[in-house]
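Issue 218. Parser rejects a valid record. Input:
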Amino acid sequence: MIPEPDPVRAEWEAEKGRLRHHPVRMVGVVLTVISLFALGMAVYSAYLFREYTRCQAAYNENLNERTRIITEVGAAEREAERRRSDALDATLLDPAIRTPAAERTPAETARIQELYAEYVVAAEALQSERVASDAARITNPVPPPPSQVCDA
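Output the parser choked on:
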């Protein structure tokens, strides 16, 4: 004789089978959620990195432009300084300058006056180059560091 199946026991066995598969499904769901979260964080991180890189590039462009401007005015100022120095040397090293004023010939006096006039022109040019250089430094200040400009 075949024993009659117990409906309570059969239901209990079915529930036991479902419980065995339930943790496996939960692990799959949890891993999927974690993977999606990691993917979202990677996309957000890439976006932030891209924006920071753009800010750094803009900062470097501005700094390069400032450096170019300051270099150009500095070179012009140094050239004017050289011209003034050469004019001063030419004036002070001319042999006629060592001759007492009462003993100078009219040609020597004229040469000294010409050399001095060249020095004055060179000194005025240097002064205007220094003004331009100072103005360039004021209008192109050193920018704050990227750590303050780019939201890191």
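Fixed in the parser; the record now loads. The helical segments are 7-93, 106-139, 146-149.
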